[in-house]
């Protein structure tokens, strides 16, 4: 390995200047570094792009011994290590991609005390041989990156993370750090508990990403809306479009290509070589739109992603925050855009009902979905709602759709009562339950074949909601679902009375609803006059 000066015992700021060429520490970086250099444990919550790497790399250089970095992102280790070596840092990694002789060389260098940093995949660490090897050398700091992977409630859960708490037994006295860009208060507490970081100091940076503009609009025709949104962005903008299924990923990518956009698909069902090729085109070329499932993005370091679009509803606010957070890491203006509709809500509820796991687990999923719906349906500032979810209070931001164009609201009590009483009558008089489509046809007095056949035109509520359009009613249903006035059940999403229905039927609960405004990005078209 290349000879270099040792930074053992050096001043952190000197290391920051000489190794990275940065003028000063940012945010909490200096405090975190000082705390860890002095031997303290730390839990670091910092949004993506906040500068977490420096907080463990500098202590690793300043303290004697090798800094151990546990990271699940094997695909990125090579690049991370190369970047460090380019700065004169002696860094190596141990993962399944190394050949036998390469691994032997890294192990030798580690034992000889020649490494500043050693990146290891969690599954490696759970091999007894690796633990034994590490014990024979000397560690300066242990950094567990992407620490939210320890949470069984999150969608990035890795069983290998569960045993990382044991590292404290192998290396008493070595400061340990857990770092993540994703954590609600729940996951935060779970990280501390599972990684046995009881005495760690917590460094929680603001999760606000002021350069990201949040926009959520009701879904009517997802593809056309998406196309309109992308066309409203500066030409050649790179972006990510998230969709739920592999099939819709492929269809949307094809549709966008057909419209002349440089769009590529990415999902776990594609051949590894296709995935790698698409990813590297996205990283390398300008103006590529990656249409992907959530399999894409973790650890992708592309600073100039100008937009992230969702055509399906994410399962949780955490997921939404993490995915949208891939936009604008360079600090330049970026947009997080989403279209969501009634069908999304019905589909997600169905997935929860069908999910494996006990009642408590399903309830947890339901709470995640409810928080996501509340964000979608809020008449207040999106950012305030989003940050509130992470326990932060903030003022209205002025950079989200509801701040820029405050939504009109209207008193939805009467429409809600009409809908609820239709549901109640069908249930009482006929013992029947229906989904939104049929209920709306009844309310609007539509004379469809199905209405006639089922004699739904004989119901007392037939036609009492003809003052609202089909689209308006869908919006009402969506918002009532979000507030648990309604619940969607079963495979077909039949609507039933939710917990909050009683108060509405009695006229005790006010029902302020937002009027949907479509196409806020371009020429705005009101659904209702
Ligand atoms: P994270 O891991 O939190 O997503 P990184 O550690 O990758 O963030 O840092 C994000 C970006 O900020 C990188 O481009 C990095 O070079 C830069 N950066 C980090 N700390 C500083 C600093 N003190 N001064 C200037 N740039 C910094
Ligand atoms: Zn706002």
Automatic annotation (TrEMBL):
<keyword id="KW-0234">DNA repair</keyword>
<dbReference type="GO" id="GO:0003677">
    <property type="term" value="F:DNA binding"/>
</dbReference>
<dbReference type="GO" id="GO:0006281">
    <property type="term" value="P:DNA repair"/>
</dbReference>
<feature type="domain" description="Helicase ATP-binding">
    <location>
        <begin position="33"/>
        <end position="201"/>
    </location>
</feature>
<keyword id="KW-0862">Zinc</keyword>
<keyword id="KW-0378">Hydrolase</keyword>
<dbReference type="GO" id="GO:0005524">
    <property type="term" value="F:ATP binding"/>
</dbReference>
<dbReference type="GO" id="GO:0016787">
    <property type="term" value="F:hydrolase activity"/>
</dbReference>
<dbReference type="GO" id="GO:0009432">
    <property type="term" value="P:SOS response"/>
</dbReference>
<dbReference type="GO" id="GO:0030894">
    <property type="term" value="C:replisome"/>
</dbReference>
<protein>
    <recommendedName>
        <fullName>DNA helicase RecQ</fullName>
        <ecNumber>5.6.2.4</ecNumber>
    </recommendedName>
</protein>
<dbReference type="GO" id="GO:0006310">
    <property type="term" value="P:DNA recombination"/>
</dbReference>
<keyword id="KW-0233">DNA recombination</keyword>
<dbReference type="GO" id="GO:0043138">
    <property type="term" value="F:3'-5' DNA helicase activity"/>
</dbReference>
<dbReference type="GO" id="GO:0046872">
    <property type="term" value="F:metal ion binding"/>
</dbReference>
<keyword id="KW-0067">ATP-binding</keyword>
<dbReference type="GO" id="GO:0005737">
    <property type="term" value="C:cytoplasm"/>
</dbReference>
<comment type="similarity">
    <text>Belongs to the helicase family. RecQ subfamily.</text>
</comment>
<feature type="domain" description="Helicase C-terminal">
    <location>
        <begin position="222"/>
        <end position="373"/>
    </location>
</feature>
<keyword id="KW-0227">DNA damage</keyword>
<keyword id="KW-0479">Metal-binding</keyword>
<keyword id="KW-0547">Nucleotide-binding</keyword>
<dbReference type="GO" id="GO:0006260">
    <property type="term" value="P:DNA replication"/>
</dbReference>
<keyword id="KW-0347">Helicase</keyword>
<keyword id="KW-0238">DNA-binding</keyword>
<keyword id="KW-0413">Isomerase</keyword>
<dbReference type="GO" id="GO:0009378">
    <property type="term" value="F:four-way junction helicase activity"/>
</dbReference>
<dbReference type="GO" id="GO:0043590">
    <property type="term" value="C:bacterial nucleoid"/>
</dbReference>
């Amino acid at each position: 390995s290349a000879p270099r000066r040792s930074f053992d015992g050096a001043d952190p700021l000197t290391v920051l200047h000489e190794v990275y060429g940065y003028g000063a520490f940012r945010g909490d970086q200096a405090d975190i570094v000082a705390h860890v250099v002095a031997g303290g444990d730390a839990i670091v919550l910092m949004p993506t792009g906040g500068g977490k790497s420096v907080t463990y790399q500098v202590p690793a250089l300043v303290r004697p011994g090798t800094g151990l970095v546990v990271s699940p992102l094997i695909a990125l280790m090579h690049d991370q290590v190369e970047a460090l070596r380019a700065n004169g840092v002696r860094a190596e990694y141990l993962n399944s991609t190394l050949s036998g002789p390469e691994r032997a060389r890294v192990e030798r260098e580690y034992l000889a005390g020649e490494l500043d940093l050693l990146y290891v995949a969690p599954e490696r660490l759970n091999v007894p041989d690796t633990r034994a090897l590490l014990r024979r050398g000397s560690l300066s700091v242990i950094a567990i990156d992407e620490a939210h992977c320890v949470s069984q409630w999150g969608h990035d859960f890795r069983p290998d993370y569960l045993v990382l708490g044991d590292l404290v037994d192998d290396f008493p006295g070595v400061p340990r750090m857990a770092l993540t860009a994703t954590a609600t208060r729940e996951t935060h507490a779970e990280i501390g508990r599972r990684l046995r970081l009881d005495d760690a100091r917590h460094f929680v940076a603001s999760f606000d990403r002021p350069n990201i503009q949040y926009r959520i609009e009701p879904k009517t025709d997802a593809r056309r809306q998406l196309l309109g949104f992308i066309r409203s962005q500066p030409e050649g903008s790179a972006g990510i479009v998230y969709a739920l299924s592999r099939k819709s990923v492929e269809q949307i990518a094809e549709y966008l290509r057909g419209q002349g956009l440089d769009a590529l698909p990415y999902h776990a069902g594609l051949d590894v070589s296709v995935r790698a090729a698409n990813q590297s085109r996205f990283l390398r070329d300008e103006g590529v739109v990656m249409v992907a499932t959530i399999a894409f993005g973790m650890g992708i370091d592309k600073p100039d992603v100008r937009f992230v679009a969702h055509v399906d509803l994410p399962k949780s606010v955490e997921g939404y925050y993490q995915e949208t957070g891939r936009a604008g890491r360079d600090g330049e203006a970026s947009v997080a855009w989403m279209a969501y509709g009634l069908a999304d809500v019905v589909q997600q509820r169905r997935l929860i009902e069908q999910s494996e796991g006990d009642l408590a687990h399903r309830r947890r999923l339901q709470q995640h979905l409810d928080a996501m719906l509340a964000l979608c349906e809020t008449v207040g500032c999106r950012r305030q709602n989003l940050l509130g979810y992470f326990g932060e209070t903030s003022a209205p931001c002025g950079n989200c759709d509801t701040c820029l164009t405050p939504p009109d609201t209207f008193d939805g009590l009467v429409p809600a009562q009409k809908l609820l009483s239709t549901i109640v009558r069908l249930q009482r008089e006929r013992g029947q339950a229906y989904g939104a489509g049929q209920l709306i046809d009844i309310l609007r007095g539509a004379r469809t074949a199905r209405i006639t056949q089922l004699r739904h035109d004989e119901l007392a509520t037939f036609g009492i909601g003809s003052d609202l359009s089909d689209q308006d009613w869908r919006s009402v249903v969506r918002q009532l679902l979000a507030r648990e006035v309604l619940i969607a059940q079963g495979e077909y999403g039949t609507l039933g009375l939710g917990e909050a229905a009683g108060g509405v039927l009695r006229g005790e609960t006010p029902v302020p609803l937002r009027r949907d405004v479509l196409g806020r990005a371009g020429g705005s078209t009101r659904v209702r006059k």
